[in-house]
UniProtKB/TrEMBL annotation, chain A:
<dbReference type="InterPro" id="IPR052016">
    <property type="entry name" value="Bact_Sigma-Reg"/>
</dbReference>
<dbReference type="InterPro" id="IPR036457">
    <property type="entry name" value="PPM-type-like_dom_sf"/>
</dbReference>
<feature type="domain" description="PPM-type phosphatase">
    <location>
        <begin position="124"/>
        <end position="335"/>
    </location>
</feature>
<dbReference type="GO" id="GO:0016791">
    <property type="term" value="F:phosphatase activity"/>
</dbReference>
<dbReference type="InterPro" id="IPR001932">
    <property type="entry name" value="PPM-type_phosphatase-like_dom"/>
</dbReference>
<dbReference type="Pfam" id="PF08673">
    <property type="entry name" value="RsbU_N"/>
</dbReference>
<keyword id="KW-0378">Hydrolase</keyword>
<dbReference type="InterPro" id="IPR014787">
    <property type="entry name" value="PSer_Pase_RsbU_N"/>
</dbReference>
<dbReference type="Pfam" id="PF07228">
    <property type="entry name" value="SpoIIE"/>
</dbReference>
UniProtKB/TrEMBL annotation, chain B:
<feature type="domain" description="Histidine kinase/HSP90-like ATPase">
    <location>
        <begin position="35"/>
        <end position="132"/>
    </location>
</feature>
<dbReference type="Pfam" id="PF02518">
    <property type="entry name" value="HATPase_c"/>
</dbReference>
<keyword id="KW-0418">Kinase</keyword>
<dbReference type="GO" id="GO:0016301">
    <property type="term" value="F:kinase activity"/>
</dbReference>
<dbReference type="InterPro" id="IPR036890">
    <property type="entry name" value="HATPase_C_sf"/>
</dbReference>
<protein>
    <submittedName>
        <fullName>Serine/threonine-protein kinase RsbT</fullName>
    </submittedName>
</protein>
<dbReference type="InterPro" id="IPR003594">
    <property type="entry name" value="HATPase_dom"/>
</dbReference>
<keyword id="KW-0808">Transferase</keyword>
Amino acid sequence: MGDAYLRLQEQYRKILNQYLENKNEQGLYHAQQFSKKVLENQISPEEVVSLHLSTLEESFPDIPKGAQDSFEFLLEVMIGYGLAYQEHQSLKDRQRELESEIDVAANMQQTFLPSGIPEPEDLDVGVLSVPASKMSGDYYHFVHDENDCLGVAIADIIGKGVPAALCMSMIKYAMDSLPEQRLQPADLLANLNRVVEQNVASNMFITMMYGSYDVRAHTFQYAGAGHEPGFYYSAEADEFEELSAKGIVLGIKRHAEFREYQRVVAPGDFIVLLSDGVTECRTEQGFIEREEITRLIRNHMHLSAQEMVNHVFHELEKLQGFQLRDDFTLMILRREV
Amino acid sequence: MSSQSCVEVHTEWGIVSARQAGRNKAKEIGFGNVDQARITTAISELARNIYLYAEKGEICIGEVSEMGGAGVKKGLQITAKDVGPGIDNIREVMADGFTTSGGLGAGLPGVKRLMDHFDIESTSGEGTTITAIKWLR
Ligand SMILES: Nc1ncnc2c1ncn2[C@@H]1O[C@H](COP(=O)(O)OP(=O)(O)OP(=O)(O)O)[C@@H](O)[C@H]1O
Ligand SMILES: [Mg+2]
């Protein structure tokens, strides 16, 4: 038995005798404080019982034999609690370990995302991606090319947490290993689909929207693989339209073809791309409507693209009581006036 | 090791006899009431496992000693032996939170915690031998 134990024993004797003498609330308060110390020192319940018995024997030398023996009985009962407590401790330690491993992995994952936001001439870009828990199943990516085109990808791995994050790193790798020469959005998705189908577990599916913005001609070509539709805001009409692209989710069929769409982007128009964590935001009243999102965007339209996405996120976060249920990614590309 | 007494475990009575043998030996060696209760709990768990999973086997209790820094150290050794089905994945059953009965804390990891030394040998289809020692402090 260590010194700490002897000291606790001494203290227990003192506070118990004090209590037996005065029988007041203060004495019980000491007992409560003592229980914290006992836990701190990892003294198991059976030891507390034994401590109690030995103190009792000292203070009441003629304690009835039956009462004394009953403590042996209690001791035996408490062993189980002691073990459960120790197991709880060790599981807690293991949980802490796992959490810190996940922290490391989450930091690593952050490095998969673009470190900066492109700033091509005449185009204002804003993006925000926030995981629901530590790791994210959302992904976005920018590709600049020598033809003055900015490629943008937004992907959502169906699922959440660590498995989705592992899959997300596959997508990053797959995108990096695509052929050097510029691919049209539909070809790029077909290519990526093949990689996903062959390399990613068959129960993992990925939705993606890929677009290419031609900074000189101001056209936006895009294709989608089962991804949540975005929005197109037309400044002239002052209206939001759905920006959807038909196509099968990546990883389902070996050979898939994707349709390509094109928009001519007028000054002040903007493109909104998002993951379903934005639209499937749940409040106490149920899922929010897509109109709610466009309303929020409209409220902040006078700001820069980055400020817009930040504000929309904060308001949706507030609507949901600061609890994200799904990974959130929102991207806005606006042609400057 | 000096004298060793063995108890056959085939019924719940056997579990109680094994506990009794452990209690007697623990007292004789000089263990206090807390350690006595720990030792008997460990014996219970091992004996119950024999009774439940191997049908029969035996529990032997003996005194052991070892030369340590501060002279001779005395201890109590439990050996639980059976020729039952054995344990396939020892690592799994030794992990916290595994027990099939959901029995909080106890089970084999509990025995390991209650004792100072724990050793398990088991071959699938051949049987299991578990040795555990509690040292007198
Ligand atoms: N002597 C044995 N022979 C064969 N299998 C055993 C033996 N002892 C344990 N096992 C196996 O190891 C598992 C874990 O045993 P352990 O005593 O840790 O937990 P449990 O018996 O399942 O639940 P608890 O003991 O908490 O009520 C058992 O479910 C059983 O499958
Ligand atoms: Mg058991």
